[in-house]
Design a protein that fits this description.
Largest sheet: 8 strands, mixed
Radius of gyration: 19 Å
Strand content: 25-35%
Helix content: 25-40%
Structural class: alpha+beta
Oligomer: single chain
Length: 331
Amino acid sequence: MASDRRFAIEQVSDRNLALELVRVTESAAVACSRWMGLGKKNEADGAAVTAMRHAFDTVEIDGTVVIGEGEMDEAPMLYIGEKVGCGGPGMDIAVDPLEGTNLCAKGGPNALSVIALAERGNFLHAPDIYMDKIAVGGGLPAGVVDLDAPIEENMKNLARAKGCAVTELVACILDRERHAEKIARLRALGSRIVLISDGDVAAAIATSQPDSGVDICLGIGGAPEGVLTAAALRCVGGQMQGRLMFENAEQIERARSMGIADPHRKFDITDMARGRVMFAATGVTDGAMLRGVHRSGRGAVTHSVVMRSQSGTIRYIEAYHVSPGANGTRS
């Protein structure tokens, strides 16, 4: 009976905390949306960081940022090792206050404010370097794709698992010169491709959404974004693998100093995000997964998603934020 009661308390606590995380991403999204389309990505990112940092002050956790936007001397970013929250259970935090700074600056789709949370020690402490990644959604046989397998084999296995032809699959990949060979091989197979300029977190999560039209996300992007993606896909039963990509010996030593004993290891999704994981995101600009912040003279409307690995629950939340002074109230 005592264990049942403790489990019930933990469930309530998790649900409440998940909703608190949404309030944090909402704050960041609303703040940086003022810079949308103005061509000033640093200002937009700075606004998101400041708002997120202040919003964390009311969250009842003893949080440590393990995936952030740089080192302590690079403030005002939410730096690796920064403490957040007003006290409570020890938690590791992965944040990207504005995932897709260029997208926000240019008014492009799929810019997000993103947070993932896990109990201490359950996130991969990934340095801010590149990671080679492959991700698919839930409901598929284990090991349906493999980072080390040829693209052709992965696409054929995925098509077989989905009961369709390879030519019906859609792959999402960052539009970068480094992906020229992958793109050519996918097109040789007849697979369709969605090329994106930025925002690979949203793209990878899209693989878990039946109506997104994206079946697989692959290619080289940021390692911190890889951990955030793994956290989201953990909540929905997706699959992901990643391997760090190093440019010099200094980066290898940096990874080792962060606890990565084998820098060349292939990480599975549970290597990147273990245990009970929560994920929250709020749209900054309109995208396939979330609507962006819609502003008016009276305030703003936000569209968010919050997910928990413990229950597999996915909640979409539309919130109305009244501007200070409107009707004498504020959000």
